[in-house]
Amino acid sequence: MNKSNSLFYTNIENRDGAEEIFAKLEEYAEKEINPVYIISRPLEEKSESYGYEKGLVVLIPKHKIMFINYGNSEEKFEDFYEDFIEDLGQLSKKYDYMKILGRPRQWKNDFTAVYDYRDIRNLSLSDFLEENKLQSNEDKRKGEFLISLLTGSINDVGRTGTDCPETVLEKIRRKIILFDGDQTRFIFDEPHKDKIIIQGLAGTGKTELLLHKIKELYLNRQELKLVFTCHNKILVENLRERIPEFFDFMKVDEQIKWNEKLWVMSGWGSKSDPNSGVYSYICSHYNIPFERYSYNVTFDDICKRALQKLNELKDFEPCFDYILIDESQDFTDSFFDLCKKVTRNCLYIAGDIFQNIFKKISVSEVNPDFLLNKCYRTDPKTLMCAHAIGMGLFTNEPESYLSWLDDKAWEACGYDIEKAEGFYNLYRKPLRRFEDLGNTGIKNMEILSIDRKDYIAQILNIIEELRENNPTLRPDDIGIMFLENTNENYQLVNLLQAAIEEKFSWDVNIGYESKEKRKGAVFVSNRNNVKGLEFPFVICLMQNTLDKDLQNRNAIYMMLTRSFITSYFIIPNEEKNMIEKLKQGVNFVNKKGFLHVKEPNEEQKKILNNAIINENNIYKSQHDIVEEIMNIENIEKIYRNKIHNIIKTAYREELDYDRLYEIIKMNYSLMN
Predict the structure, then answer these.
(1) Is 459 helix (H, G, I), strand (E, B) or coil?
(2) What are phi and psi of 382, to 5 degrees?
(3) Which residues touch 623 (CB under 8 Å, ≥6 apart)?
(4) Whole-angstrom Cα distance, residue 368 to residue 618?
(5) Ramachandran quadrant class, 80 (left: phi over 0; alpha: psi -120 to 50; beta: rest)
(6) Any idea what DSSP says for residue 294?
């Protein structure tokens, strides 16, 4: 299994002479659960070169920026340092960080440290890092702002600020976000394949990463035809609005050339508007028949027939350079095959790894290139509870489970496994967004079972309590979502809107009508309009009792994971045995911080195991692949740098594994 260290990133290939510190820092990142970046330039400045290949920069939250010279030229390294600081200052100015950080002359002495590798190689890593720790909380925040600039993880400085927030809500709301190693690799590393599959849990930032990838592609290529697509038309409209806002936030000067350089459209579209969908554009561009929606025609069928028509064309040329697909679990393979056919360079497919578990098929197999299993929206306890409710695990009766994962799949979903006396203890590692909170006493999830006639009163009580405990609470910090699309729920929404406006004088945004999240208004919607949204607090409700319908369980999992502090789950007070088990399970996770579930027997596992998550395709740089092959061949260290240089200079294009293996063996034999 080829696992990547999601907390470690480097863009440096020539590590000759400094291999030891790379290995130590990668081990530190995994052990301490603290991200480490080793870079040679700010990641956004792709074309920037400082004329010196033996300088590296170590970035670790709560530490100074550590510059290390592992070459022989002090003069060139000094130029490297000064040029790097100058470019960092320019980035600070570009993204308005200067009003918080000041000019480089005001911070570079306090926030940077310079070393010669020969002077530190005999130091223990712990002593070295201790020497470079930032002391005050304000300095730690400023240090993280600098790291965010260098890694392209740009934060809204007006929202975050440098003063240290006091309440839990403000601590999380104003946390400085840093991309982890996997996210950084996806955005900034060049694709080495013509199809890249990204799988992640809800809240791992898949859509945000796709936006960053769009920006990277859009700015680095003048002649380009780029498509961003998903199945849900409401989400398409949301993305079409988000992209200009995102480009403005990222200070992109180039005007967006809609339907010329960039398309945002749904999968299907309409015949009258070729730019409304990927399928409709393909039919128009290649002059093949367009099939309209009908009761007896599935999108899967029309994609297969369209691909067959394209395969019959002579002198076929792809019509797009890149296609990025979001929420891929909503499509079938035929749509991916069709998109692959019309994509010249690379097809990106991003989906929710966990939602594959709820598909109504015997086995769902996932082979991701990037596996994002650290959820940065939702507290690990909330995510564990949502998974357990979705899979029916809180019954602790394997015969009533809806699904089960094998050990590799549990690990791929971000769990550490401990087995004891017929039970699985499933743990999730703490995350940076929640690391500084300590024991707040706040419940991450709460099950509330009441009579349906009391739903509105219960929701008002929750809001009242949230207002009392969170002085800076805003109306748009709350999302209220219901499961069933029934008249009963739509009538409840009308009554709830009036009650909230009367009791709190707050505006209410009906999401299934507005199709957007609005500032200054409580969000209320059905389950169909909550994808991609997040709130500090969500209140989820259902009118029916909890059944075994996989689509309903999927929707419940999706709604409960919209929160980053607390999710409230309101259900009717029937089936008291089931409710008691849910409450016991949720309370256990809130208190103990892990899932404790009974292991199914082998026969039960065969029935329940409906998701295979392979990690064999996990993305690695060409440098890492070459190292892996040289390890297999036991190639001595004295030859390794030479082989790296041969591949880097003689072969400009990305090479697949077999071709690299062939080249390495050939050159190694010539050296002996």
Answers:
(1) helix
(2) -60, -45
(3) 13, 644
(4) 6
(5) alpha
(6) B
Contact between 410 and 589 under an 8 Å Cβ cutoff? The reply is no
Largest distance between two CA atoms of the chain: 84
**Cα 325 from chain centre:** 14
Residue 425, burial from CB neighbour count under 10 angstroms (0-12, 13-18, 19+): middle
Q: Which residue is it, tokens 């809107």?
A: 497
Predicted confidence (pLDDT) per residue in 205-264, tens digit: 888 899 999 998 998 877 899 999 998 777 888 889 889 999 999 999 888 999 999 999
**DSSP code of 454?**
G
Phi-psi region of 499 (alpha: psi -120 to 50; beta: other; left: phi over 0): alpha
Q: How far is Cα 269 from Cα 262, in angstroms, rounded to an integer? A: 16
Tokens of 203: 């809240």
Q: CA 543 to CA 455: how far, in whole Å?
A: 10
User: Are 347 and 340 a contacting pair, CB within 8 Å?
Assistant: yes
**Selection from 387, 410, 373 nearest residue 180 by Cα:** 373
Q: What is the pLDDT of residues 19-44, one digit of tens each?
A: 899 999 999 998 888 899 999 999 98
Question: Is 328:336 a contact under the CB 8 Å cutoff?
Answer: yes
Residue 18 backbone dihedrals phi, psi, to 5 degrees = -130, 20
Q: How far apart are the first and last CA of the chain?
A: 32
Q: What is the pLDDT of residue 612?
A: 47
How far CA 409 is from CA of 373, 429, 600, in Å, comes to 11, 16, 15
Instruction: Give the Cα separation of 596 and 589 in Å (integer).
Output: 8
Q: Which run of H or E residues covers position 509?
A: strand 507-510
Q: Give the whole-angstrom CA distance, residue 330 versus residue 352.
A: 10
Which structure tokens are listed for 277?
């969908």
Please, how many CA atoms are within 13 Å of residue 590, restricted to the half-sphere of its CB? Answer: 18
| Ordered DSSP codes for 380-410 | HHHHHHHHHHHHTGGG--GGG-S-B--HHHH
